[in-house]
Design goal:
The protein is mainly β. The chain is built from 2 helices and 24 strands. The protein has helices at residues 7-34, 261-264, and strands at residues 44-51, 69-70, 75-82, 95-101, 110-113, 119-124, 130-133, 135-138, 149-150, 154-157, 159-160, 172-176, 191-197, 206-210, 224-225, 231-232, 235-239, 253-259, 274-277, 285-286, 288-289, 303-311, 317-323, 327-331. Strand 22 and strand 23 form a beta hairpin. The chain is elongated. The termini are far apart.
């Protein structure tokens, strides 16, 4: 049996339906107005970060290199895209990014910026050890291409140790480079290091070796001119955070820089010195003699302890560099 609704009931149904439709319309309008506007086209590419090997946690930012990178090792470049106002922007289609290097050769010269992405990671590597590398990233040179970005300078190192465990408050010693963890320097690796931390470190320790600059005018990482006019050497680095009981001028840490006799075998040990920098990417400065055994003259001013420095039985030179914090160094 069919049922006929009264006119009054029908009006109630229409009122309910009208309310529901009104609520849906308002909800769709609110969602539409809250949706963010699509990013505009990029006019600038910015390199936010270049990353290779992780720097130990706790190393002061001034001492950390702008990037810790090994020759042939993976480099991750984080780039972002901005519009004319500096707001995030994106490409309307997948776009090829070009990677360039101021020195050295790259294993990978392109990356992809996916459609709609305002930031992206691209990867490459520099195939050999070189100093003061600047990377560039652009999207071509057409009239609508955004301005490309460049990185801060960084060194591509010959070798980087795995993170070494150091105990806060307990003695630590490790060698790197040369033969047998710098048991001795060799003719092919004439400069190596042994790092001695009597009170350990407040972090893991990372050791590295890099190339020196053969340019005679270089103050960044000059090579040493040694026996027979041989121009060679290495730039060594020790990265660590201070232990709870920090190193001081009267109780320093030591970097024993060993130099093979084929490079440093001539003249008196006191005629040789070590160059140093406490900045991750700073110019090297020749160290002065220490005032006494195992004693520095001033904080943040490494010196050579000639009382302990010596030549070993094979004729290799051992220079004892005293420091109260992590350091870059090389034969001066």
């Amino acid at each position: 049996m069919s049922r006929i609704a009264s006119p009054r009931a029908a009006r109630r149904v229409r009122v309910v339906l009208a309310i529901v439709v009104g609520l849906l319309t308002a909800l769709v309008g609110a969602l539409t107005s809250a949706a963010p506007a699509a990013p505009s086209a990029p006019v600038v590419i910015v390199i936010d970060r270049v990353a290779g090997v992780a720097v130990p946690t706790g190393v002061p930012s001034s001492a950390a290199p702008s990037a810790l990178v090994q020759a042939g090792g993976r480099i991750t470049i984080t780039v972002s895209f901005l519009d004319a106002s500096g707001a995030p922007a994106s490409f309307t289609k997948d776009t090829t990014l070009r990677i360039s290097s101021s020195v050295g050769s790259l294993s990978q010269a392109t990356g992809i910026a996916p459609k709609g992405k305002t930031t992206v990671d691209i990867t490459t590597s520099v195939t050999k050890a070189v100093n003061k590398v600047v990377l560039g990233v652009d999207a071509g040179t057409g009239p609508k291409a955004p301005t490309g970005g460049t990185s801060a300078p960084f060194d591509v190192l010959t070798d980087i140790s795995a993170p070494l465990t150091a105990t806060n408050g307990a003695a630590f010693s490790a060698g790197f480079g040369g033969e047998g963890g710098c048991t001795q320097a060799t003719a092919s690796q004439p400069v190596c290091q042994v790092v001695v931390l009597p009170r350990g470190a407040g972090s893991q320790v990372v050791l590295s070796s890099g190339v020196c600059d053969t340019d005679a005018s270089s103050t960044y990482a000059p090579c040493f001119v040694g026996v027979g006019g041989r121009v060679d050497g290495a730039v060594l680095q020790a990265l660590f955070a201070e232990p709870t009981q920090e190193y001081t001028t009267a109780s320093p840490a030591t970097v024993i820089v060993k130099c093979d006799k084929t490079l440093c075998g001539g003249g008196a040990v006191s005629d040789l010195t070590v160059a140093w920098s406490l900045a991750g990417n700073g110019n090297l400065t020749d160290a002065l003699p220490c005032p006494a055994k195992n004693t520095m003259a001033a904080a943040a001013t490494p010196c050579v302890d000639y009382v302990q420095s010596k030549r070993d039985g094979s004729g290799d030179t051992h220079l004892y560099l005293l420091t109260d914090r992590d350091i870059r160094t090389g034969i001066g």
